[in-house]
Every structure is written in structure tokens, then in C-alpha cells.
UniProtKB/TrEMBL annotation, chains A, B:
This is Phospholysine phosphohistidine inorganic pyrophosphate phosphatase. Belongs to the HAD-like hydrolase superfamily. It catalyses: diphosphate + H2O = 2 phosphate + H(+). Coiled coil: none annotated.
Length: 270, 270
């Protein structure tokens, strides 16, 4: 593999995944990953532009930012690209009224959306709310529509909490796709539209950006398909087999965000 | 389409799906489909051999047969081919110890199976027991195995109860397949092994048998791939679009089991 100086040449902006990179969720809100609070602070003191690009869909952006600030992170709502607000824009543009299968924590993001007489379904990481009854209700709504439309906020397979691996929204999206014989529209990583909106909001071209994430497919593969370089951290849901993934090869693997920031501050365009 | 006489020539044995053909499940056990009790009785008085071939995986065979007898059907346990007993045979043959994600009603079928220190997962139509917590536990067991093995008792998309369409085991199988990056082994229709064991138990060759079911893919498509003719009934989960299915064309469509039996008694090999 090329030297880091070559791999990081010309980087001007950094997209940071949140869960598994900044912190691991869990009991009592979760815990910061060692070194990540300082790493974000150092990055923000540099000339590099920084934006947080998350598939978090259990919490509103406000709640997520409050949690991260409590853990010590320097982060504000305006710096976060998240799928729920992006979905609201799409629903408004297309005049769609969703049946929501989402966690109560993110419901406030849909406060301005008409949910009467639904003509589509939106699912997010609903956690415990992925009960059989709630899944069956979403299924029945879809089956009653002439052209069923399903939005999924991300399609992650699982994430890591302090207590272990947890099923994410992706498996439930697949369940409804199969049950109804349809294909969901994914809002969030790895959707190219989502990365592009994060780049726009950061004001940096794809070729000058790097994504740092723990998900080899959603973060690394998704970013690379948009022409964004991508590093995988060995924290969060990282598994050693990711470094031999059959389809995706990161531009670099680092132990954690702290190491990624060390390398960026040494080698990126300052 | 050819005349019924031609389509049913040489039939000596009839495989009957149960849910959606004999009865629709639901509150208080469900309700017999009009004409089906008499149709089964007429079939059994004829020279045709009859076997029940079901993907029912919420109830033990004993409970299913008791329910059907209460609804008036002439049926006994020994006449039923069902996925739970077939799975037990496979587990014993391969020395596998399952983690069970199944409905309490079918758990007794696995009474003789060692479930300590599991090295595979078995899922069935668990209904309300498809909670997030139970799905996550099955997922975690699979992720801890070096070579995850998942058995699914059928892969139906949904079935019809008196109260409406209900998610079957298939969508949950797809969820775990996606979460773990694996492919499940299906025990039940449309698996060819399952149809073959039903034929063996009935003592009739594939070319002399006809399957009657409400599932265009699981019943009709599955049987046809084994060389068994198949009729779809317009009861249970049947939807008008099934008659224009892109991949599967039944050998005939009938309004219900009563009509199928009328035709068989007129045209099959007596």
C-alpha cells in the first residue's frame, strides 16, 4: 500500500461517522471511545473542515448532540448530516404521508410531517419497537397500497453497543422488502445522495474529502463509490475479517479515531 | 389451457396444504373454509391417496390435528408432513444443538433435542415471539459461531388469518441472513427434500401426484420443480395477481378445495 503521505494528499475535509468512531452507545447513553474526544478537538483546531455524517436514526439530532456534548465532544446540531431530516425533505417534495415505524426518540424530527391516511412507510432503527405487531402493521400498510413505497433510514446490518452487537434497521428493511416483494429507498449511508449532501454542507469536493467510519460497507464502500477516500477504524463494529472483505478495500485501516487524526494532521493538506 | 381431463390424467395421490386451504387461522383457532371439511371427507372416501403437507411451524402436529378435528376435519397426526419433525431428524443426523427461536406451541416437537451450548439457530413462525430481543439473541448466537448455521422452517412471506395478512417466518429468515451475511437452510416447502419426503410417506411418484395450495411460490412453484402438478386455490392468501405471476403458472386455478376435489373425482385416475 502507498505511504500515508500519498494516500492522504490533498485532503481538505473530513467526514466523521459517530457511532463506533466517537462513542459506543449503551446503558446510560454509552461511552466515548478512548482518545476520540481529544481527536475531534484537535481536528477542529486544524485547518481541515469537519462534518459528522451519521446513520443514527433512534435519536433526534438534538438528543444525539446533547449526549455527545455530555461525553465531552465539541459538536453542534448544524454540523451533523443525519437521515431523518433528509427523509423529511423527500417526503415534503413528493407529497408523501408516512406510516412511521421509528423509535420514539426520533419521532420529533417528523413533527411537521402529515402522517394521516399514509401512502408510504418509513422505517428507522426502532430497537425494541421492532415488535412483531409493529412490523406486521407496517407490512399491512404497504400491502394495502397500489404501489408500496418503503423508505429505510440507512441499511446497516448491526451496530455495537457497550453490551454487544445489536441488529440495525437493515435486517428489518430486508424483511419488509421480502414480505412485500419490493425494494426500499435508502436514505442515509451508503446512498450516494446522502454523501453528496454531506459534502455540499461541508463545502468540499469528493476528491478532497476523507470518510472515517467503522462500517466497511456503509461508510467505506459507500464513500468510495462517490469518489471519497475512506479509512476504517478498528473500533465499534469493526471485525478483523473486514480487512479481507471480498468487495471493499479501505484506503487505510487505523486503530481508532486518534490514530486517524494523527495521520491526517501529519499528511493532509494543511 | 388443456382440458381438466388431460391436466389431471394419471393422478393417484393428493398433497394438501392446510392453512388457507382447509382453514384460516385466527381468533379462537380460526375457521374452516366453506366446503373444505366435506371435500377432505370425499377425497378420503375415494381411491386417491391423501397426505397433508404443511409449513405450519407455530403449532406441534398434535395441536394442529386436534384443532382441525375440532373444526370437523378427518385427519390424524400420521397423515401430516410438517417441518419441525423434519428438522429434528436433520439436527440429530448432523449432531447439531439448536438455539430455538420458535413459538411456544411448537417447542414440544424439539423435546428430545439437546439445546445446550448451541451451535446453530432454528427459526420458525414465532409470531409475537419475533420480538427485537429474541431476534437479537438469535443474531448474537449466529455471530459467535465460526460457521453460522441457520435453519428456517419454511420461508413463506405471509399468511392469512381471519383478521388479515400476517408476516410469516420468511421475512425474519431474510433479516437474519442479511444481518449475518449467510444463507439459511430451508426445511419445508418449497424445499425439494420436503416434497420428496411427503411423496415417500404417501407412496406415490411425483408424476402421479398433485399439490393443492394457496401459495403460488411455496406450494405451486415448489411442487412443480419436483415434477408434481399443482393447483392454486383462490382462498387463504391467494391474490388475483397470483394468476399472472411472472415465474410460476399453476396447472390450474380453482375457487376452493371443494372445486378441486370435484374436478379430481371426475378426472383423476380412479
Amino acid at each position: 500500500m502507498a505511504a500515508w503521505g500519498e494516500r492522504l494528499a490533498g485532503v481538505r475535509g473530513v467526514l466523521l461517522d459517530i457511532s463506533g468512531v466517537l462513542y459506543d452507545g449503551g446503558e446510560g447513553g454509552g461511552a466515548a471511545i478512548a482518545g476520540s474526544v481529544e481527536a475531534v478537538a484537535r481536528l477542529k483546531r486544524s485547518r481541515l473542515k469537519v462534518r459528522f455524517c451519521t446513520n443514527e436514526s433512534q435519536k433526534s439530532r438534538g438528543d444525539l448532540v446533547r449526549l455527545l456534548r455530555r461525553l465531552g465532544f465539541d459538536i453542534s446540531e448544524g454540523e451533523v448530516t443525519a437521515p431523518a431530516p433528509a427523509t423529511c425533505l423527500i417526503l415534503k417534495e413528493r407529497g408523501l404521508r408516512p406510516h412511521l415505524l421509528v423509535h420514539d426518540g426520533v419521532r420529533s424530527e417528523f413533527g411537521q410531517i402529515d402522517t394521516s391516511n399514509p401512502n408510504c412507510v418509513v422505517i428507522a432503527d426502532a430497537g425494541e419497537d421492532f415488535s412483531y405487531q409493529n412490523m406486521n402493521k407496517a407490512f399491512q400498510v404497504l400491502m394495502e397500497l397500489e404501489k408500496p413505497i418503503l423508505f429505510s433510514l440507512g441499511k446497516g446490518r448491526y451496530y455495537k453497543e457497550t453490551s454487544g452487537l445489536m441488529l440495525d434497521v437493515g435486517p428489518y428493511m430486508k424483511a419488509l422488502e421480502y414480505a412485500c416483494g419490493i425494494e426500499a429507498e435508502v436514505v442515509g449511508k451508503p446512498s450516494p445522495e446522502f454523501f453528496k449532501s454531506a459534502l455540499r454542507e461541508m463545502g468540499v469536493d469528493a476528491s478532497q474529502a476523507v470518510m472515517i467510519g467503522d462500517d466497511i460497507v456503509g461508510d467505506v464502500g459507500g464513500a468510495q463509490r462517490c469518489g471519497i477516500r475512506a479509512l476504517q477504524v478498528r473500533t465499534g463494529k469493526f471485525r478483523p475479517s473486514d480487512e479481507h472483505h471480498p468487495e471493499v478495500k479501505a484506503d487505510g485501516y487505523v486503530d481508532n479515531l486518534a490514530e486517524a487524526v494523527d495521520l491526517l494532521l501529519q499528511h493532509a493538506d494543511q
